[in-house]
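New here. Invent one.

***
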Amino acid sequence: MTETTHVTSCPLNCWDVCGLKVTVNEGKVVRVDGDEHHPITKGNICGRGRMLKERVNAKERLLYPLKKVSGQFVRISWEEALDDIAGKMRKLKEQFGPTAVLHSHDYANNGLLKNLDRRFFNCYGGATELIGSLCWGAGIEAQTWDFGNAYSHAPEDIDNSRHIVIWGRNVARTNMHLFERLLAAKKRGATIVVIDPLFGPTARIADQYVCIKPGMDAFLAMGIMKELLRLGLEDRAFIKQHTIGFDDVKQLLQTISLAEIERHTGVSRDQMTELARLYGDRPTATYLGLGMQRYANGGNTIRWIDALVAASGNVGIPGGGANFGNLQVGECFDKAALTLPERKTASRTWTMMKQGEEILRANDPPIGMVIVTCGNPLAQVPNTNLMKKAFASVETVVVFEQFMTDTAAMADYVLPVAASFEEEDVYCSSMYHAYLNYGPKLVDPPGEAKPDLWIWTELAKRLGFGDDFAYTREQFLAMALRPLEHHGITLKRLKTEHRVLLPVEPVPWRDRRFQTPSGKYEFTSTIAKKKGMDGRLQIMYPAESEESNPALAAKYPYRLLTIHPLRSNHSQHYPLIPALQTVRIEVAADVAAAKGLADGDRARVYNDRGSLVGTVKVLDGAYPGTINIDEGQWGVFGGPVNVLTSDLESDNGCGSALYDCLVNIEKVTSEAK
């Protein structure tokens, strides 16, 4: 037997986008290791990446097109499936226009050619499209208001930081190569602070752990800034020369006391004073996580932390930054050449969070078909029960999938698609490093599974715009990479070198020229004002909180978090790991004491939207009144947690409020089981 090993990339939607070495034997992936030559990931990969071998080889893979007949799936040919779907799309467009079709998608895998779904729908004439993001949308919009864009410092710039604040980012679980850099930074003497409601591995290595009440991070930023100003540690020159709106901030800070902030956050004034000194002793780098912007006040939260970073002079300097997303990576490509936006003739947009509600009330036109790609919305989109009702109301649901997920199980047509290593693409991180990674096709898909691009091409032929898809994958990739040619970056070079550093700024805003309308950092946002919003920073609470809704908080006194699972990329790996196939309810010690719960007990978490039963684990160091249930669990294994979560949008309309969720909990007796 001849084994061959290939350099490729992890395709998962993750901060790190690791370099991989994949060993193939007789057409089958037999091993997945890290590529030790990758300049960022250096051979270290997580369990989610290693699980790609099990995923690609899984006996549960979908192998043939399926059609639901009398409530049961039957195998059909690709010809029948494509003819049926194209015929229905043609009739819907003739009767109602193209927006009668909803394209429901997420970001299950990266891959530049995943953008070709937009080419298909634009050439179809448009569709009802989803905007915003369950994951990071509120924070991206917030930083766009403040800086004009959402850029992060290069990973190696952390070597210039005197202090490092990890604010709500679960680094050990979601950004392991930053965790490695934190260990090195600590060894050289940098101060590490972790601010988080949950005490985890990153907090264990920190010099200071700040346990904060969930959803109240903006108030902590206010408190630190009040102390920064009292101590005279603000960067007055930066504020005067390169910002607008700081007087609005100072005026608002005068309306809230440190005592109030202590009460809201659970953080002492002494800690706020210490953090103010730390921010004033620049360069201080801040790494923001995704969870704290998943509230109804989420955009405002990120803006307050941005404001603290700016006021303390930590913007545009080596070792500083408000590091959230890194959109400059994606701006390197000619995505318009891939997507053909000029071909769209009609458009309707809904936020990703509200798609269930919008499907149910749409009548101009009604939704006659939903096409789901790169996602599992019946597990991942909040308010699962409403989503189920919405999908059940649509005449035709088409799902591109590899496994029989919760969403696929509700479909009328399930189309089996290729997995990682079964198609050629290029991959990059939109959140951390700026390396573009080549991913060759290594093995054939099993059964009759096909790449997404093949399916779009075949549907395009049937709908009359096949010429727009008459290109090879290499030709499509060359289109997208064309702007990089004058930097010497070509597909040929990428294939040879396996990864290439994109031409992005390692220290964003170093020239103090921001992409806002004013060209300055905006404490009061002009972009927000143009969108009909106030633009000033606010004092704002989570929608489901004691401050905003005391009656609800009395009924449901505990705050539910739904963090990323350690071993699965969202819902993808749950059917492959038996240890994940039970719901684990992690509770703070005070919740356990109040409800008489101990490790291993069965409990029910509930609110007005739904309930979930699982096994209790008592957490050390969690903020009082906090419960966590990892997101992504499948219905067949007792999930998903989104039966409990709300489909509220963030304050700026671009993000979810998944963490803005109050619940109660009760022990389940053996009789009730």
Q: What stands out?
A: The chain has three domains: 66-134+347-434+443-493, 137-324, 550-667. The first helix runs from residue 47 to 50. Residues 63 and 447 are 5 Å apart (CA to CA).
